[in-house]
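Inputs:
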Amino acid sequence: MIADQFPWLTAIILLPLVASLIIPALPDKDGKSVRWFALGVGFADFALMCYAFWKHYDASSATFQLVEKYAWIPQLGLNWSVSVDGLSAPLVLLAGLVTTLAMFAAWRVDRRPKLFYALMLVLYAAQIGVFVAQDILLLFIMWEVELIPVYLLVCIWGGQKRRYAATKFLLYTAASSIFILVAGLAMAFYGTSSGSPFTFDMAELALKQFPIGLEVLLYAGLLIAFGVKLAIFPMHTWLPDAHGEASAPVSMILAGVLLKMGGYGLIRLNLELLPNAHVYFAPILAILGVVNIIYGALSSFGQTNMKRRLAYSSISHMGFVLLGIASFTDVGVSGALLQMLSHGLIASVLFFLAGVTYDRTHTMAMNEMGGIGQAMPKVFALFTMGAMASLALPGMSGFVGEISVFVGLATSDAYSTPFQVVTVFLAAVGLILTPIYLLSMLRQVFYGDSAVCDMASSGKPSQSDEAVCFGTNCVLPSEAIFNDASPREIFIAASFLALIVGIGFYPKLATQMYDAKTVAVNAQVRQSYVEISQSNPQLYAKGLAFPRIAEVESASLLGVVK
Amino acid sequence: MESIYQYAWLIPVLPLAGATILGVGLVAYGKTVNKMRKLSSGLIITLCGLAMAMSFTLLFSQLDGHAPFVQTIEWASAGDFRLTMGYTVDHLTAMMLVIVTTVAFFVMVYTDGYMSHDPGYVRFYAYLSLFSSSMLGLVVSPNLLQVYIFWELVGMCSYLLIGFWYDRKAAAEACQKAFVVNRVGDFGLLLGILALFWSTGSFEFDVMGDRLLALVESGSLSAAMASFFAILVFLGPVAKSAQFPLHVWLPDAMEGPTPISALIHAATMVAAGVFLIARMYPVFEELPSTMTVIAWTGAVTAFIGATTAITQNDIKKGLAYSTMSQLGYMVMAMGVGAYGAGLFHLMTHAYFKAMLFLGSGSVIHGMEAVVGHDPALAQDMRLMGGLRKYMPITAFTFLIGTLAICGIPPFAGFWSKDEILGATFEVSPVLWGIGWLTAGITAFYMFRMYFSTFEGEFRGNDTSIQRELKVAQLQKLGMSLGPGAMNPQELALDSEAHGDDHGHHSHEPHESPWTMTFPLLALAVPSMLIGLVGTPFANYFEAFIHAPSEVIEGVPSEIDWAEFIPMAGSSVGIALIGITLGSLMYLLRKVDAGAIANQIKPLYNFSLNKWYFDEIYDTLFVKPSRRLARQVLEVDIRIVDGVVNLTGFITLVTGEALKYLESGRVQFYALIVFGAVLGLVLVSSVT
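Outputs:
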């Protein structure tokens, strides 16, 4: 059984990494062979992970599979320990798909193509590393490794304020990631004096029992670390800058995969390792989720820049992930994961199409656009589909994720009824706000008389020159051609949309991959909930205070802005 | 016979397949597919025809007394939680299937003529087919969640079709408005679904009704709470069926092409609200306060719609308000417990209103030959008149529709409207009074419409009226765009361009091609006769369609003449008064309508401006929400971001000190991080 011995996951991580090292040595005249090479590697890696999961991954089991563990730096207790379970596997596939298609989207990047594709491949490897690492130290290293290519990708290719955005992104994420390390060390060292092993391995850490005070501290620290990544209010402000200024392919990865690392981390570490603290934090998560939904939606509506509007919509959609995580129900947790996957696909396609539009218009300001539907009916059609998916139209994946979260939250027996009513109500307000900002974007950009000719001439070349490869290509504004989507562009968008519609029509396509796992996670969290509420029956009975907090918070939020 | 039930899922799937083929074709091979016009429309019409044939088979099978059929599959699951989807065929479904497929079929045939010059011909068929599919999916839904899914999908199709001419600014705004207003209703519907699921643990209609009743009886859920849940669900129909206060989107929706107005915004989609109320009857009928709310909403809507329709000059807007008013009747009927009567009116209305809209489309089509493709001119009744001479078939069918909607026996509308009014009188004479008055207003404005369109002299070549309308339209536009946006030169250019576009300008409107007149004639038949299935003498309709809780044996035929005569007499009487007034003012010109309007100027303006709903909503919701969004954004940039940037700034200043590293900021930073990690780990492992 050599197939069982083969280190599938290691191979999946190392393939793009090694390939990125080869790139500088590649003979290359005009960047044409590099892109074929990078795309080929990306696709091969994606195929590899599909094959590995198809053959060796058992979706009906909630345990870690394809386990590999090699001592790396034994002195530090660092192990190369990777494996997948229901939580990782779909996200690994998402990362592979989005990154591969992002490289295909960046087909016409001709500024320093070698560096670009090499960084993309490093990013590819690091993302998968984050999702499969079973060792907290390894997770932390992967987390940091992923930052560097993103920083450079945003810094070199992007809009006018890209350096500011890149620095901000780096500072936020890196500073907050310290908490992962600190928490990891604390967990590893805890109890070593009383005979517990010193270990970074998550499966072993899960067996340790931490005192509740420490758990709460660790939880809070990790919440900051992952909250920044997931763009939880008020730690979200890096996101509109980074997503808004990055070039389109990088935005696809940022919104499609990197945001999900936050949600993944929350479930993987906070829920699985610290379930007791989660019981105390869950209402806060729910409140933050609601704030994210409404605050993100309103900010998005206030934006006049297309990419920033999409970026804020991501913030809004991530609120549903928080709500699902906090729901204490199978369907809620499942919905949270599905919402991550579906947002990964939807945000990617929307950012991609925004880039495609930018290639033609060379502006992101929606008030300078208008009537583009006349010139580019295909882009218009695809964009409409993407926007419909994003506003949770049934038949598309966004709906299934959100309705699962809603049903999960509404049927949750963990909260008091007033708290449930307020959160469900406010989250549902988001349903009204989403079409308002998305459809008004469509209206401003695509509807109306053809104003296409004006735009080409009225562009401000002095400023636009500063943006480098902001869209999916590097064409100068003066050379931009107003043509409709090319077959390559249609293919990329259609790949995403096919999956979005597929999952929307039959959600079990996606959910059966991780159902066993989310049920297990929820069972664990519920058990903690039962234990804690038995020993401390006051918790949620007195927890009636929480709904009051919810109301006060949202009321004060509205009060501030008024 | 069983096999037809096994394959009933094909009814919504067939049009979906057609839409998918055309949609994918358009995106992938736009130019080629756009040229295959007849092939595309042929495919879509064939598929719709197949669905129609299957629907009729199902209807006959149900009439034979076949038991209801349900088939479900597991759609989504998480742990022990299961969601099922599927399809059900019962009496109500069978009737709705036939209504939707027949109207859709005739509209599709009609479209071939109406859209023949439009470059978006194929896309239009794709949308039409997608809509048919969603609507058919809605009527076969076995549970509330699936209804919600298709509910949203028909809303999306409506959005796409209203915004079909996406180069028109008004269409762009109308489609967005329609979607958002409907989302407000869906928001209530979703909350209601969740609340009902929370309390009953089910999405099935009858299970929900039974359990909710049990909960209320056992006292674990207060009746007020249960009614509140039901009213939340009712918010969905309020938006979809254009009931007060969420009706504002429907008149604007007339920006879409006319076949759409006939299919979606008159016959089928807007009736979905009534259909949902019917489906939710097991829940609603046990909650008297909910029923009262429903009945009053319907009555108020009927009245608002009728009073607004009186003064509208745009033929489609007038019909739109009339639709709203008729939907009000249906909702009122449901609210007073006249389940069968409400759905009967749904059916008769679907046929005669679809015909009226298609007739108005035929008129517009004819007018465009004279005044050009400008909706402000081609749809304005002040430019019409005397069209009966030029378009006899259209005029004849329009007259039938007008008589039907006015409730003149034996046309379809009489039987259904009379049944509603009779049932309402038993519950509440006040509601009956509103309905009765509305019937009179309906007769007046419908004949006003008929006379000013088809009788008298043709005014289409009167350039002074044309100019007046043009100026009024620009003023309206100017108001919404703000001062300075109006450019007289643009106006001049605009009208010249229109002249060039359509070389076929003539001084006389023409009758439409057979593809348009055939559906008109075909729909005229049910508009005349379909009412006869539900006469009080032999109410076959009631025997077939009745509330789930009622038990009806045989065909109810007992008729109480003492009750029927005054009821029918009074409604026919007020209709005749309305018609007489209408003919005095608009046919014989004995009474000057303008003078009356001037005498009651405030009332006239109130009606003309649609009760000022748009203005009120603009001040109350639209502007504040924009302001709020801007303020939130300000807070985000200034305060939330500012605090963090301060921290970032301090860090950067520290970084500046190490400027000589040049581009090495990252490496340097990474170095620090790794150094710190390493140090920390080493220190901790030593201790």
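Remarks. Chain B touches chain A through 74 residues (CB under 8 Å). The CA atoms of residues 80 and 133 of chain B lie 31 Å apart.
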